[in-house]
Amino acid sequence: MAAPKKGRQGTQGRPGRTLALILIAIVALTGGMFASGHTTPRLGIDLAGGTSITLQAKNEPGQKNAINKTNMDTAVDIMNRRVNGLGVTEAEVQTQGESNIIVNIPKGTNSKQAREQVGTTAKLYFRPVLTTEVSGGDPAATPSPSGSGSPSGSPSAGSDKGDEKATSSATPTATATSQGRAVTEALKADPTPSASTTGDASAPASPPASDAPSADPATAKLQAEYTALDCSKKTTRATAGDGVKASDPTVACGQNAQGQWQKYILGPAEVEGTDVDKASAVFDTQGAAGWKVTMDFTSKGAKKFASITGKLAQNQSPQNQFAIVLDGEVVSDPYVSQALTGGSAEISGSFDQQESQDLANMLSYGALPLTFTEASVTTVTAALGGEQLEAGLIAGAIGLALVIIYLVVYYRGLSLIAIASLLVSAVMTYVIMSLLGPTIGFALNLPAVCGAIVAIGITADSFIVFFERIRDEIREGRSMRPAVERAWPRARRTILVSDFVSFLAAAVLFVVTVGKVQGFAFTLGLTTLLDVVVVFFFTKPLMTILARKKFFAEGHSWSGLDPKRLGVQPPLRRTRRVSAPVDTKEA
Q: How far apart are CA 374 and CA 103, in angstroms?
């Protein structure tokens, strides 16, 4: 007799512990929500307002018919990944016409950075330096930009008079500082460069090739642009090098560590941004602490980088320097004494966290295939979205009220379990949505609200399946407690299959769509998962506990499990057949 009793306990489990577990989880999530300070879900642009930007594409210099569907679609994809990398996941990026892209950015902490980056071309080139000077200064007096410190690694990787340098060393890294930036290369080579490859940083700059008399009109034009270039003026810096191909020399501006603007003549690009395989922002805990951007080159890019540094190492300053040019501005210009073959590099120095993350974000997601200009920037108000949200909430409240009325009329006492489960599901949905805003950038928009409303029906359907299975068991003549335990395995399979189909549909919809429709799919998938959690960890344990109570166990008329109302007939095994008396006289 002891074995069956133990088996019944194992089947019914410990519902009290399960209920306590989910309640502790709800309290912990709610406490985390209040501790984070984000007590309401983050709203999308249709509910919170934001900024709408119209970007107009234009052809790159020397290209014809570059504005086509392929390049526009590529630009939309890159912009989407850029704003998603900043956490603005509800931003909308879509084409309008043949040459315009509309970007809708909701209000948020990163909306300003998203606006700055969304149309940035992010074209990165490594160009050899032909000559450089402080803008407006004397070239002979300032042959190269001044760095903020000496490179690390070995004495041979040091610098004279603040000049920056990139070199090999026996230590794991060697750093070159410039303009408040530094480039570091992982190296394994001879720590001592030859004397013939190390330029004297204090010597006057060698005259660039463009200084020599030449009949080439392009060379004369380049020298004239360099002479007239004043990098201290913002308008001049913005147009320096405009319209120049990567394969042609150009002029450019950059800022050194002292805050002075340098001007440069740069040779054709030897390495491009497409040769960078991966870029990320990291905090340097060794050496001079600070934020830096690490870059890993592709196999092809690593060969190019080794080639250009090997060539530059044979020149004198400043023609042993290479400039890292991002969107026409020099962000670093280290000099080298031998080829750098590590296949990776770091840009560091005078970065804050936001700057390093912005740069890494643009480099990681690639350069836009087209150049864009802002045609218009407008502010979107949340008035219309607020009215639609109010209408949607009213519709959701009406639907929820109808579901509750149906449950009360048809299931009576069981409706209390269903309503309690709906409340638990609503609380968990709200808390998780509030936490997902600062965590992954989730923003609640109108389609997402619709997904939450649809989830009410999915959750109620799970309760109905369970309740009907219990009623079927009671109709077969079983008492309340065995009916609950026998009904659960059958209902569980049906609930899991139904929720799996709903989640699969939400996942497919999320993958194949963009913009606001993804908000609907994400919310639908989230609430479907929460339905499984609530049914398994709240509804079932609560039903098991209440089945032991007299109100449900005896089938009260208002319990929803009254055997008479369910049409239960007395089981045949409990009836006795009475035989008619036999007349002995007649026998």
A: 11
